Amino acid sequence: MVLVLRALGLGDLLTAVPALRALRRGLPDHELVLAAPRELAAVARATGCVDRLLPAAGPGRSVPAVLPAGARAPHLAVNLHGRGPESHRLLAGLGPEHLWAFRHPAVPGVRGPAWIPEEHERLRWCRLLRWYGLVADPDDVRIAPPAGSGPVAPGAVVVHPGAQAAARRWPVDRFAAVVRGVRRAGLPVVVTAGPGEAPLARSVAEHAGLAPSAVVGGDAGVPFAELCGLVAGARCVVVGDTGLAHLATALGTRSVVLFGPVSPALWGPPDGGLHRALWHPGDGPGAERPGDPHAHRPDPRLLEITVDEVLDAVLALSAGDAAPARPDRSPGPGPGSVVVEAASR
Fold first, then answer.
1. 79, 118, 204, 232: least surrounded by Cβ within 10 Å?
2. Where are the beta strands (DSSP E) in 193-265?
3. CA dist 159 to 74, 94, 238, Å?
4. Please, what are the domains in the chain?
5. Which pTM does this prediction carry?
6. How far apart are CA 257 and CA 310, in angstroms?
7. Looking at residues 172-188, what average pLDDT do you find?
């Protein structure tokens, strides 16, 4: 058994798809088990790489305290969760024959490559696996929509105003202004709500003059198959730096992604013309460094993005214009069957 730890969110799992594919190709005779939140089972299935999901999650983005009993004594444990040392120790405690991870001075038994803080997330985990001898392509991000994910609102511009933290949430009035501009251009709009984001989505729709029926999702968010159908059939997705942006990348849907406090150089979509990553790092030393992605108010760099910038990008992409964005706005660098084990604490 190969046990992979990535007990994070939707976007985190989707950015790890290239690494999971490398493990699947490089170790075809091993069962590949993913330790991740239970609600990501359908996402794991859509990658086509994972044989089994072990429910695992810690508060926020922290390392889980324990793993379910089914994780015991893997042949190989792979840490795609973080730099350590807590995640290293969690996996080492299972007694694997081998542990692949970045080296950390607090865990001298792990002899992996060095951690590079200013490295794109997809590149980071592919570099880790290359160090251990696997072939990994950081642009191998595409997934197939799951069965039953038919078109929900084909041809619509999907606007997703939510994000886990306020630091990555562009203001309601600006999203509403973009929606009004898109509708003036004659394009239909759908506003999506993740778990707990229904009031936010309804507020955007109300300010933009949309009917309540234009909001998709409620207190529980949108089921993954339905969300894939919506995104895959969209003309364009407008979203902050959050999980839905990575889903648009994975499904090959055009997107306009609003960045700040974290640079697209670290989490942005691949190059290639399908995406616009809007980002205003500012001037001076350290301008490109990440701010606090968990802050309780919108990041100043996010607020530098204007309604006109977003609207221009949406309309250009919607018209099929794949011309490169200006430098200050440029982008950064067959489904399987997944069994979800019951958690045991």
1. 118
2. 215-216, 236-240, 255-258
3. 42, 43, 5
4. 2-141 (3.40.50.2000), 157-329 (3.40.50.2000)
5. 0.90
6. 9
7. 98
